């Protein structure tokens, strides 16, 4: 209701007068910020897909097709070792944050949540946990393609502190970007 009042130019719920141009400007600014954040997220995730197309062996990523003509280009060099671990929480953290209600807790929580997902998958590759996880996945999914690929991920992957650090860096960069763009801040007109 206060947004309608603010759009017409009037009083907010707190009794303050809100000029019409201020509310419309803040809504336009929020939309531009959201579009910019979504574009940055998709750009980062696209870099991750490109890495799997040109630097990783064909068939390593289940949902990314193998294009043999592009394999072995070495485009990303040593950055390619940890880039997917950075890009995943960064890109998905931004996309999730933009989709959530305004407020620092929700949006920072999205960044933290994607770091936790990445960290769980990274720790799942530890030799002492991978066989147990694979057995649990087989029990849950049976001989399905999803179960086979998940079990394969844990059994054939390797835990790396560099991947864990990259995931933390990706989540922190996403949170910092949210803060710097003003996507997390005073949302007095959105209440």
The helix/strand series, from N terminus to C terminus, equals HEEHHHHHH
Spans of 5+ residues with little confidence (pLDDT < 50)?
A: 1-12, 18-24, 186-191
Q: Helix/strand-derived class?
A: mainly alpha
Q: Evaluate the radius of gyration.
A: 21 Å
Q: What is the β-strand count?
A: 2
Strand order of the largest sheet: 1-2
Q: What oligomeric arrangement do these chains adopt?
A: single chain
**Number of helical elements:** 7
What would the average pLDDT be, to the nearest integer? 81
Q: Based on CA inertia axes, which overall geometry fits?
A: globular
> What proportion of the residues is helical, as a percent range?
55-70%
Straight-line N-to-C gap? 8 Å
Sheet-strand content, in percent, reads under 5%
Largest sheet: 2 strands, antiparallel
Describe this structure as you would to a colleague.
The structure is a single chain. This protein has 191 residues and is an all-alpha fold. The protein has a domain at 26-124 and 159-180. Helix content is 64%, strand content 2%. It contains seven helices and two strands. The chain has helices at 2-8, 20-54, 83-99, 104-123, 130-141, 145-156, 161-180; strands at residues 10-11, 17-18. It has a two-stranded antiparallel ribbon. A hairpin with a 5-residue loop joins strand 1 and strand 2 (17-18). Helix 2 packs antiparallel against helix 3, helix 3 (83-99) packs antiparallel against helix 4 and helix 3 packs parallel to helix 7. The longest helix is centred in the first third of the chain and has 35 residues, at 20-54. It is globular and about 50 Å long. The N and C termini lie close together (8 Å).
